[in-house]
TrEMBL record:
PANTHER family xrefs: TRANSPOSASE INSF FOR INSERTION SEQUENCE IS3B-RELATED, TRANSPOSASE INSO FOR INSERTION SEQUENCE ELEMENT IS911B-RELATED
PROSITE patterns membership: INTEGRASE (PS50994)
Chain's role: Involved in the transposition of the insertion sequence.
Listed Pfam families: HTH_21, rve, rve_2
Gene Ontology MF terms: nucleic acid binding
Protein name in the entry: Transposase InsO family protein
Swiss-Prot/TrEMBL GO biological process terms: DNA integration
InterPro entries: HTH-like_dom, Integrase_cat-core, RNaseH-like_sf, RNaseH_sf, Transpos_IS3, Transposase_IS3/IS150/IS904
Domain Integrase catalytic span(s) in chain numbering: 123-286
């Protein structure tokens, strides 16, 4: 609306009379519009905009229109159209984090001790049927931080992780150990990885066998053979790793721990999960199984 533009320019110090003359709108009409009490719609928009600012802040500045809309609808039971959310979010100057990023990694591919049991079919009908695992790295002022994560394909939950200043085999063993301790998977759960030397090591294979897990490996240097982990790392890269310059390994390690346990697993909404978080998705599944 032209009158709103006149007001915005006036707030920036541009004379109302000059603006109205250039835009060919009535100056008296502008003052009448300005002095009119706000409509119910205006008040609702102001309330929604304030709520959306809070949601955006809660998401650490990562949510765009789809997830802000989902948070309003699913968490706060606010019935509002997606186009209205997009318009108000734009007016507040907030936007989500998007785009593709690529992780930096140095892993030496080795001969695979396990067949590819997944064949790019990253589908599971319940928890603890198919896990994926991988390593990423990120620099800090005092040196690199390496993170290994184990992801449950069913819910996208990170069921195990480890953080260290090295890439030795115990980095991946510790993440697997956490996953098995937390989830107590039945024998036959598949653990899919790439052919990095950590995953082809004897100690990792021994831990798999001890826990009754089935190892699976994709092809050499093929990101699509472990696409779910690539997607997870890209999300962490956008929403955490690339958001600032990290001054120490301890600072980044603490931030990764907090991002996974306090944000990603319990609260971050996923389009592939019907805009639920991993914890919410598994809770819903468990309730449905119990009621059946």
């Amino acid at each position: 609306m032209m009158f709103r533009l006149v007001q915005e320019l006036a707030d920036d110090g541009i004379d109302v009379a000059v603006t109205c003359r250039i835009l060919k709108v009535s100056r008296s009409g502008f003052y009448e519009w300005r002095d009119r009490p706000p409509s119910v719609r205006d008040l609702e928009d102001a309330y929604l905009a304030n709520t959306m600012v809070d949601i955006h802040a809660m998401s650490r500045g990562t949510y765009g229109t789809p997830r802000v809309h989902a948070e309003l609808r699913m968490a706060l039971d606010v019935r509002v159209g997606r186009k209205r959310v997009a318009r108000l979010l734009r007016l507040t100057g907030r936007s989500g984090i998007g785009g593709n990023t690529h992780k930096k990694r140095r892993k030496q591919p080795m001969p695979a001790p396990h067949e590819d049991l997944v064949q790019r079919q990253f589908v599971a009908d319940e928890p603890n049927r198919l896990w994926c695992t991988d390593i990423t790295e990120h620099p800090t002022t005092t040196g690199k931080v390496y993170c290994c994560a184990v992801l449950d394909v069913f819910s996208r939950a990170i069921v195990g992780w480890s953080i260290a200043d090295h890439m030795r085999s115990d980095l991946v063993v510790d993440a697997l150990q956490m996953a098995t301790w937390r989830r107590h998977p039945e024998p036959g759960t598949i653990v899919h990885a790439d052919r990095g030397s950590q995953y082809t090591s004897w100690v990792f294979g021994h831990r798999l066998r001890t826990a009754g897990l089935l190892g699976s490996m994709g092809r050499v240097a093929s990101s699509v053979d472990n696409t779910m982990m690539e997607s997870f790392w890209a999300t962490m890269q956008r929403e955490l790793l690339d958001t600032r310059r990290w001054t120490s390994q301890e600072q980044l390690a603490s931030a990764i721990f907090e991002w996974i346990e306090a944000w990603y697993n319990p609260r971050r909404r996923h389009t592939s999960l019907g805009m639920l978080s991993p914890v919410e998705f598994e809770t819903l599944h468990t309730a449905a199984e119990t009621a059946a």
